[in-house]
Each structure stands twice: as structure tokens, then as C-alpha cells.
Amino acid sequence: MPDPSDADNVERLQDEIDESLENLLIFPTLKGLNRCADLMEEYFRLEMKVLTARGNDDATIVEGHERIRVITSATLGRGGRKDPFASCDSG
Questions:
Q1: DSSP 81
Q2: At what angle do helices 30-53 and 58-76 cross, to 10 degrees?
Q3: Residue 90 pLDDT class (50, 70, 90 cuts)
Q4: In the 8-state DSSP scheme, what is residue 82?
Q5: What pLDDT is stored for residue 87 in this prediction?
Q6: Phi, psi of 29 (to 5 degrees)
Q7: Whether pLDDT at 76 is above 60
Q8: Is the dihedral of CA 70, 84, 60, 51 positive or negative?
Q9: In the prediction, which pLDDT does 37 show?
Q10: At a CB cut-off of 8 Å and minimum separation 6, what does 19 contact?
Q11: What is the pTM of this model?
């Protein structure tokens, strides 16, 4: 079972990401983009922890990991930021 506080934090992060994205539409700044990217990295890391704790099978977790990698890469673009999931590669 996932830690209930992790699930609560996932929901909180989703709300913060939504708000951050709305702010980016109004005031597109590099600082705002970086803040949004940081929130997304934290969200995705925590979401994978929750998925793993729920006992999802390996295929579901790998599929989720790949989806997260694509979203994160698209969000971060080529800003020189390190891929937060590079150390998770399995092959």
C-alpha cells in the first residue's frame, strides 16, 4: 500500500502544476518554466513511488516510466537539464 501522504502530495503537486502552467500562459518566463519543470519532476518521481507501492506489475511500471520520460523530455526541452530518470534505465 502506498503511503497516504504520498498520494496526498501527488494531488497537491497536480494542483500546483496546473496553477504553474496557467501562470506560464499569462507570464511566460524562464523562471516560471523552470518552476513548472521542477514540480513535474517531483510529481513524476512521487507518482512512480506510489505506482510501485500499489504493486503494479513491472510492465505497467515500465510503461509509466516511458510515458513520464517522454513528457519530462518534452517539457524540459533542450535546456541542458539532466534527465532525472537516466539512472533508472534498465537496459
A1: P
A2: 180
A3: very low
A4: P
A5: 47
A6: -130, 160
A7: no
A8: negative
A9: 84
A10: none
A11: 0.55
User: CA dihedral in degrees (72, 74, 75, 77; nearest 10)?
Assistant: 110
Which candidate, 27, 26, 35, 48, places its Cα nearest to that of 76? 35
Residue 20 pLDDT > 70: yes
In whole angstroms, give the CA distance from residue 88 to residue 65. Answer: 9
Sign of CA dihedral 8, 10, 12, 15: negative
CA neighbor of 9 nearest in space, from 54, 36, 57, 48 = 48
What's the N-to-C CA distance of the chain in angstroms?
28
Look at the block and give the residue holding cell 500562459.
25
- Single-letter amino acid code for the residue at 24: L
Select from 64, 49, 60 the least CA-distant residue to 13.
49
User: What type of residue sits at position 1?
Assistant: M
